[in-house]
């Protein structure tokens, strides 16, 4: 990193901390172009975390009321706002662990008392078919989600995490969604898929104006892959706006998604370099 780069980065950080602040006239640093997309992204994330808090409240209420069916119906839609902003949520590793870890991360798996969060609740609802053992986990999830919301509101978004986030989301899909690892008890994986795609596409759309001029073919290719992935997922949409079980996904469609996800991950991983953040 050279000195000019450091200056630009710190100027950028202070501008992002105060989104309303006007840019100094004549500032033509490449990375200052990121100010607008970053502040737009911050708004997007704030909306998603507010939604997450509200939806989690509903899920927690259903669990505490002992309403298994209602809690099941709220599980997948509640998660989507978390999945869409995972590049930012993951900056808080402690919370990401307690909110979204899988049983495999714990020595005693599902029976491990430190296994908490969405997937512990998912296990209770689908495998134990009961809310009895998960009421405390519901309270904990609510507290963690509030904490996440507070921390995100105070966060100065690191440009590399945002720009790199588009690829990170596609890598998340490649690593934990295609395999069906993430929502193994409920088979609601396709909801997460869509949210991950939307989160990645949001970042790409915000950055697009910065790359479209120099690299129109790249933009076209990425847009094309996003839309093929979207069309493939759309085949599994249900009438109530949700998704069919992951088991319904055909091998052919799984292959299409897998190819698109890997290509997108690869292409989007070049964004940081294209925008001078490497
Ligand atoms: Cu996740």
UniProtKB/TrEMBL annotation:
Keywords: Signal. InterPro entries: EfeM/EfeO_iron_uptake, Imelysin-like, Imelysin-like_EfeO/Algp7, Imelysin_sf, Iron_uptake_EfeM/EfeO. Residues 38-271 form the Imelysin-like domain. Pfam families: Peptidase_M75 (PF09375). Residues 1-24 form the signal peptide. It is found in: Cell envelope. The keyword Hydrolase does not apply. Belongs to the EfeM/EfeO family. This is Iron uptake system component EfeO. The lineage of its organism: Bacteria, Pseudomonadati, Pseudomonadota, Alphaproteobacteria, Hyphomicrobiales.
